[in-house]
């Protein structure tokens, strides 16, 4: 795993143990426990594990901001528009599916108070054992960002677990904005996934997430 060492040292929540460091390379110990789940597959993790994941995310968001910035709203909106155009022009997805989700995604494109975000908090990056979080990996996208983006990526494709995560997070959140991030993330991810030989059309994956918004 390769990361900027300075960023790794600032991680405030459950980083894996560093075995040795020779910037920009880190050797990391194996994380105990199992991944919270996988996109497209039912999660076998307990509700308590999902609650614990929400609490860990809240601890991260309460930490001091990192010095490096994240993407601006204009950059995110520009990428979203470009990906939507590509999806329709190339006939990858029906125009009505893209248009509907682009409209839903608009709710995410609003000013937010930046927090320390993981930036790519997929299920496979959060490890749990019973009802405890044992580690969080792959911090390469960590930056100043929207708290609800982290919560959205954590629950992408597992909407039924959102209540547990929010309960662990322990704060009022705008569920419509989380759903907007589900649409936005899925729209911008489809092309990269296809080009890298991932099946985004598999049951429960990004295209199904988009269809669920219809």
From TrEMBL:
InterPro entries recorded: AGP_Transferase, Aminoglycoside_PTrfase, Kinase-like_dom_sf
One Pfam entry name: APH
Keywords: Transferase
Aminoglycoside phosphotransferase domain boundaries: 17-172
Gene Ontology MF terms in the entry: transferase activity
Protein name: Aminoglycoside phosphotransferase family protein
Organism: Nonomuraea rhodomycinica
């Amino acid at each position: 795993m390769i990361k900027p060492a300075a960023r790794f040292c600032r991680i405030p929540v459950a980083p894996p143990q560093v075995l040795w460091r020779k910037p920009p390379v880190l050797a990391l110990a194996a994380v105990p426990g199992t991944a919270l789940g996988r996109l497209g597959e039912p999660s076998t993790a307990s509700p308590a594990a999902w609650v614990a994941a929400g609490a860990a995310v809240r601890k991260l968001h309460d930490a001091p901001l990192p010095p490096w910035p994240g993407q601006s709203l204009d950059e995110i909106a520009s990428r979203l528009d470009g990906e939507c155009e590509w999806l329709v022009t190339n006939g990858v997805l029906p125009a009505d599916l893209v248009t509907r989700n682009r409209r839903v995604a608009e709710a995410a494109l609003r000013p937010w108070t930046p927090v320390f975000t993981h930036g790519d908090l997929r299920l496979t990056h959060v490890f749990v054992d019973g009802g405890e979080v044992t580690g969080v990996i792959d911090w390469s996208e960590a930056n100043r960002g929207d708290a609800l983006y982290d919560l959205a990526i954590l629950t992408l494709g597992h909407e039924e677990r959102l209540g547990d995560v929010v309960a662990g997070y322990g704060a009022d959140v705008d569920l419509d904005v989380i759903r907007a991030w589900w649409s936005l993330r899925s729209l911008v991810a489809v092309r990269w996934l296809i080009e890298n030989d991932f099946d985004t059309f598999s049951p429960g994956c990004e295209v199904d997430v988009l269809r669920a918004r219809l």
